[in-house]
Amino acid sequence: MNDPLSSQPSKILNTILFIGPMPPPVHGQAVGFKAAYEGYSGNKILVDQNMTQRGFFYRVVMSSWNLLRVLYLMMSRKIDIVYFTCNRSPLGGLFDITVIGFSSFFNKKIVNHLFGGDFKAFHDAMNRGYKKLLDKAYKRVALSIVEHQCLAPQFEDLFPEMRVRVISNFYNRDLESITSVEKQDPVHLLYLSNLMKSKGILELLDAFGNLSEKYLDVTLTIAGAYLADEFMTAVKIREEVLTRLDYLKEVRKKKVEYVGVVSGLKKKIVLQNSDIFLLPTYYASEGFPLSIVEAMRAGNVIIVTDHNYLSKIFTNKNGRIIAKKSVKDIEDAITFFTDHSDSRREVQEYNLQYAKEFYSMERYLDSLNDAFNAV
Predict the structure, then answer these.
(1) What pLDDT was estimated at residue 323?
(2) Environment class of residue 133 by beta-carbon count within 10 Å: exposed (0-12), middle (13-18) or buried (19+)?
(3) Which structural domains are found in the chain, ordered by start?
(4) 89-98 burial: b if 16+ Cβ within 10 Å, else e
(5) Rounded to 5 degrees, what angle do the CA atoms 333, 339, 340 make?
(6) Which residues contact 125 (CB under 8 A, 6 or more apart)?
């Protein structure tokens, strides 16, 4: 990969303008951006650009206001680097193009961070004129950051001269106190992600219902916020989930609980008390889910779909890779790891140690700082 930055020292403290989404709402890009901003020890300025689940008019007005603010900051403040998390929507792309244009005009170094795996798909879906704007802008980016080596072609295929660096995702420091796997029967299942149809929550609930007679004591905890996607509105997915939850509780007498959005100590407890983490996703923008890294660090088996780049990031050493939209595959994976406690324990211990070694917050922040210092 074309990145000569890795051997550079980490002593310089630049002034960085951070442009991206701060939670709430909570999603992987917002969490990653928040960690980058709060973890940077040099001079920093924040422009919050979290437009998730906002209406078109609000996004236009706030994006315009933020662009004026960015322009003012570049004219009035000493800024060395502009760090932004790239959008993959027509309106968001125009925002990024303008930010890059301002940064280039004022001779600022530009660092782009992709949280996801769909920039190339977004680029290719645009018309010729829009592509030209994107191409002209992104050729001015000094460095792009991706979450895994397999995601480097998102930029390398489009911009061969661009420097690309891999910086893996991370787990929250709250999980550092988990030092060993201490799981007990019965088996506890966990879904921890935003509740969207394309995240596979309905397929998971159907699979859990089908296994209700076979495994009377297996429990399922669901955590996350209801969000819209291209398949269902937030209201509709909430209706579908609640209907299934009522059925499982009242008819099947299953131990299933929806705990809403969790963070901090509550999130740690939910992760630590679970045995098998499931994310049967087919979400279009799925890249390197932060929730999987956290589940690994807490000593969980991972069941995830063969979608986008997930099967290149995770393998059956981490649990089980299953087909998209397959209720049966979810059932089979749950069945195997419920019935085979030795295999479950082996994967749990492997995941905890692997995540501890490769996905710590310190490693993430050190890698970001090295990139900022050398760009």
Answers:
(1) 98
(2) middle
(3) 16-170+360-374 (3.40.50.2000), 173-358 (3.40.50.2000)
(4) eeebbbbbbb
(5) 90
(6) none
Sign of the torsion formed by the C-alpha atoms of 125, 280, 207 and 249: negative
Mean pLDDT of 285-308: 96
Structure tokens at 250: 């009242």
| Three-state DSSP class for residue 320 | strand
Dihedral, CA atoms, 175, 295, 6, 99, nearest 10 degrees? -100
Can you give the pTM of this predicted structure? 0.89
Place of tokens 């792309």: 93
pLDDT at 256 over 60: yes
DSSP 3-state of 131: helix
Burial of 121 (0-12, 13-18, 19+ CB in 10 A): middle
Per-residue pLDDT of 151-199, as tens digits, reads 999 999 999 999 999 999 999 999 999 999 987 789 999 999 999 999 9
Type of residue found at 54: R
**% helix, strand, coil for the chain, step of 5:** 45, 15, 40
* 357 CB neighbour count, 10 Å cutoff: 9
Nearest-angstrom CA–CA distance, 236 and 243: 11
**What secondary structure letter does DSSP report for 114?**
-
